[in-house]
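Chains adopt folds. We examine one example:
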Amino acid sequence: MSRLRIFDDTRPQAPVSVHTAFAEIARELANVGVRFEQWEASQPIAPGASQDKVIAAYRVDIDRLMTEEGYRAVDVISLTPEHPDRAALRQKFLSEHTHSEDEVRFFVAGAGQFTLHIGGKVYDVLCEQGDLIGVPDGTRHWFDMSEAPYFVAIRLFTNKEGWVAQYTGEDIAQRFPRMAPHSSVAAA
């Protein structure tokens, strides 16, 4: 189940509020300029489906966002607990950073935790299968996929070179909860 926990950025021990209903999560995130949507595939997706088949299943929503926001590239990333570089990949995303373009991810399967640092608050968003999150450019954030990652995600980019981070040098990400290994393993 998707979840949003909102913390005061000086108090990582206990959230100020917790939301699990889609409408509440979307509203809270919209209040700080973050897009949160849920999508459904237009056709069944078999486990291990190719990037082309995954993109085809969500083509209508992808095209809508590309038109609305000017995204120019789309791809699919897939990570499993057996991936040989999982620890290095996880470490790359765990420090607070920003981007000069929106970071848009749609979870076809599995889960990931986006944590946003906005206006004295920390918004900890557990995204699961069917969730799309759009983090605006310049937003301080970090991402955790757990020690045993499992997700398939569609990524949309303005910059065709893809993911480029500017690290803030702050240690805030180390003080807030990490993602626990995910128990539900949905097929993509």
Remarks:
- Confidence is low (pLDDT under 50) at residues 183-188.
- The helical segments are 22-30, 51-57, 59-69, 86-93, 172-175.
